[in-house]
Fold this protein.
Amino acid sequence: MKNIASLLGNRNKFLIFGCGFSGSFFAKTIRRYGCIALTSSRSANKDPESFVFNSENDIVPDKKIFDGVTHILSCIPPDKNGNDPVLGILQSKLQSLSLEWVGYLSTTGVYGNTKGDWVSESDQPNPFQKRSHNRLNCEKEWIKSGLPVQIFRLPGIYGPGRSTFEAIKNQKIRVISKKDQVFSRIHVADITNAIIYILQNKDFLKFHQIINIADDEPCSQIEVIQYCYDLLGLKMPKPILFEDAKKELSSIAQSFWMENRRVSNKLLCETLGYKLIYKNYKLGLKNCFLNS
Ligand SMILES: NC(=O)c1ccc[n+]([C@@H]2O[C@H](COP(=O)([O-])OP(=O)(O)OC[C@H]3O[C@@H](n4cnc5c(N)ncnc54)[C@H](OP(=O)(O)O)[C@@H]3O)[C@@H](O)[C@H]2O)c1
C-alpha cells in the first residue's frame, strides 16, 4: 500500500465544524501537512483560524469562509431535536461547493447492544438509546445529501487532556465492576491519522462510506482504571458492583453501561491497511500519562 504524504497538499482547504476535542486535534495535524484548516465554534474567540457557527441561534459562517473549500469534516453531534446542526442550516450551501470530500464523525452507539459480541460495518445498526436513533438518522441525512461523504463510527474517545487520568485527578472516578462488560475505545490521534491515511490513499483504496475507527482491544473499564493507577503509583479504590453504583449514576452514565459491544476495526486495519498508533489502551494511556 502506497502512503503518499504529498497527496494532502496545501491546495486543500478544510472547514472543520465543531472544534472540540477531535476537531481541534484534526485541525492542528492537517495544518502541519500544509493544508488550510478553519474551525467552527459556537462563540467568537481570538483564534484567526476560527469562525462562528451555532445552529442553536442560526449563526452561520460568513460567505467568504467557503471560498476555495475542498474538504469538510463535521464533528458536531445531533442537536436537542435530533437533527444534524450542519445539514439543517448549511446543506444547500455545501451542495453548491465543489467539494472533494466530506467526513462525518458518528458513534458506534448506532450498533446498540450486542451483548459483548463483535460488531462491524456490515452488521445492521440496531440503536437502543434515543440519541443513537437520532445519530443514525443524521448519518442517513448525510448519505442522502449526495455529498461525497464518509462516515466514521467512533467508540469512546480519549487522549491527552481527556482520559481516565483527568477523572482520577478531579476525583470523579468511579470504579465500577459489571460482569462481562467491555467498552471499545479510540485515541484521538488515531481518529485523525486514520482519516488522513484514507485521504492520502483515496485513489488506491476502494471507497467505503462507513468505517469504524476503534482500537484492537475492547476491555473492561476496571482494567483501564487499574492501569492508570499503576502508572500513577497509586492504589485503586475498591470496585463497586454496578447494581450498587447504579442509583448514583446520572441517566446518561447509566445508559453507557446498558450496552456491551466489541467494535471491529477489520475494515480499517486489515482491508484498508491502516496501522494504529495506539493499538490498545495501555499504549494510548502511556501517551496520555507522558503528555498530561
Ligand atoms: N466523546 C466521545 O467519547 C465520543 C464517542 C463517540 C462519538 N463521539 C462523537 O464524535 C464527534 C466528536 O466528538 P468530540 O468528543 O471530539 O466532540 P466535542 O469535544 O464534544 O466537540 C463538539 C463540538 O460541536 C460543537 N457544537 C455542539 N453543538 C453545536 C451546535 N448546535 N452548533 C454548532 N456547533 C455545535 C461544539 O462547539 P463549541 O466548541 O462551541 O462547544 C464543539 O466544538 C461528536 O459528534 C461526538 O458526539 C464522541
